[in-house]
Amino acid sequence: MAALRKDGRVGAAWWEALDLQRIVAEVGTPLFVNSEAQLIRNVQRIRDAGRTAGLRHPMRLYPPLFPNSNPLTVHCFQELGVGSLVQLPNELELLQRFGFDDFIVSPGHISDEDVAFWSKTGYRVFLSSLDEVKAAVDLGAPAVCVRVDGLDSTKPGIKAAELPALVRLLERADVRLDSYEVYWGSGNSLEQMLEGAERTFGMFNQYFPMAASIDFAGGHGFSYDDGDDEQKHFGWLRYFTALTALAKRAEIPENVEFLFEPARDILADVGVLVLEVARDVIRGRETNLVVVNGSRMLMPSAQLRDRRHHTRFLDRSGQLVDDEGPGVRAAIRGCTVLRNDYVLPGEDYWVPDGVGAGCYLVISDVGAYCATQHMEFLNVPPAPEVLVDPSGVAHLVTARGPDLDKWRHLQTERKPLVNMMKGGGE
Ligand SMILES: Cc1ncc(COP(=O)(O)O)c(C=O)c1O
In Å, how far are 8, 98, 227, 307, 321 from 5, measured between CA atoms? Predict the structure, then answer.
């Protein structure tokens, strides 16, 4: 095994084989770069694990669109036979425009109008409350799908205590339960996911023995800290091996389809963010600072979730800087005046000597919940996204937002809407 480097990684990541500077020369920085080959590998890892584990149930993957919302980046799902989970009508419209046609819908809580909208699409719509199920039943739906909140929390989903009432409601209306999705939160360990699966099978036998499919949702943990590119992925083989045994013990009929909605594990290590270092390291009494031309607004969820990402620097000619020699620990600061504009949480990123203005910072594992969560709160325009295909060709898939992107809907002058004074408008 190769020596553990200062950034904690073992061996080379996919992006280290790319001449990132050639892409930077075309589109500049900040820049998200995604690897289609890595995305395909991540799907295949799951499929292979299912096959090796001898999982007998038909398995279907439905990663949600919201963690990486670029239809060109996830376009290979179509050739791979991977579906998409959508939560909003605009996501469905977008994906259909790009030729996608295999969907499930997990919309959170929705109005009766939205229940009617989704019912008409004919896709499996996982409804999150008894009230929403009742709305679908009133519309004459012959079958429904439900989302169960395994955590019994304030998240959308029918609570465990409500399941007997759900069964009564469906029996009275003579409506079939087609499928149920159980969500157990995100970033779960193998043990947590298996505990969830066991309880999910329990629900099948107690409440839903007629279900044609069981949806295990997402939440399969991805270890951002791990230095090994394989180890950081969820333990799919052990998971499927144990799941197969659990399904057998629970006597789940083998024709019941198993659906999975992993996002982080499929998408996280597909993307890197490339930023340019704006100044030589600013050495402080307590904290050193590396100032880059990015902002926490490019990937706000890293700060929000206190998520550590691996970082590496490239020199001015785009070569990886050796991180085995001397250097300093530093915080990575964004380019706005806001006190808390730190690109990543923490103050201890390793900065080798020689890193300074004109060098580049590469942040790993940003393919899920990063570009897609970009906010223009600090007037920072959206970064472009590039997709490198398996033959090595880099494609622009999102153009850089122009400097005035934040104000793209700004009116050129005030437009009176309505007179709010009582008796006005006459
Ligand atoms: C219903 C549902 N499915 C799948 C996911 C994806 O989860 P993860 O990224 O943890 O795999 C989420 C995340 O919020 C979710 O709410």
Answer: 5, 41, 8, 20, 12
Q: Which residue, 234, 241, 228, is CA-closest to 186? A: 234
86 lines ligand 1 (CB under 6 A): no
Mark residue 403 as left, alpha or beta (left: phi above 0; alpha: psi -120 to 50; beta: remaining).
alpha
Q: Is the CB of 83 under 6 A from ligand 1?
A: no
Q: How far is the CA of 66 from the centre of ligand 1 (A)?
A: 9
Geometric angle at alpha carbon 380, from 378 and 382, rounded to 5°? 135
Residues 6+ apart with CB under 8 A from 30: 273, 274, 275, 276, 293, 294, 298, 383
Question: pLDDT of 330-379, one tens digit each?
Answer: 999 999 999 999 999 999 999 999 999 999 999 999 999 999 999 999 99
Calculate how far, in angstroms, residue 218's C-alpha sits from the geometric centre of ligand 1. Answer: 4
pLDDT digits (tens, 9 = 90+) for 257-300: 999 999 999 999 999 999 999 999 999 999 999 999 999 999 99
Residue nearest to atom 12 of ligand 1 (CA): 218
Q: Read off the pTM.
A: 0.95
Distance 261 CA to ligand 1 centre (A): 6
Q: Is the CB of 65 under 6 A from ligand 1?
A: no
Expressed in angstroms and rounded, the spacing between residue 21 Cα and the centre of ligand 1 is 34
C-alpha 396 – ligand 1 centre gap (Å): 27
Which tokens go with 73?
């980046």
From 182, 183, 372, the mutation candidate for ligand 1 (largest count of ligand atoms within 8 A of CB) is: 183
Q: Which atom of ligand 1 is nearest to the CA of 217?
A: 3
